[in-house]
Amino acid sequence: MRRAALILLILISFISCKSKKNIVTKKNHTKTTKTVTFNNSNIASKIINNAKQFEGVKYKYGGTTSKGMDCSGLIYTAFNKENISIPRTSKDMANQGNWVDIKKVEKGDLLFFATKKNSRKINHVGLVVSSRVGHIEFIHSTTSKGVITSSLAERYWYYAFVQARRVL
Question: What is the pTM assigned to this prediction?
Fold first, then answer.
């Protein structure tokens, strides 16, 4: 019963996935409204591809190379390859960009987690690689498996989730 309620809650929260801005234009004294979707999907795709090049690389605290990588090192390196400067630690990254509602998360957004028991302090970060209704996948580096892609629907990550941020 709890699992069904959790799945229902996740599905409801992912109904809207695009950020939109309405623009009002005038034409012959009548107003028309156009919807323009701002999309950084090209740069986001490049950053995701940069991160995916490190899949399978083992975990190394403070690592930023194919010899070893930690979670924030992976994100820092992927963005840096596209000449986008972001802080080096997950705690500092969590203060960059804009907060994003989980139901509006897009690829290229950052997900932040608190993985220490009885703590809500951010100590882990992942990069959203795909987002669709009820399912968010993100790439990150774990101490046990190195650089992998996981789902926010996994129980561990769902309960450790703290916030999402858009830096692009």
Answer: 0.76
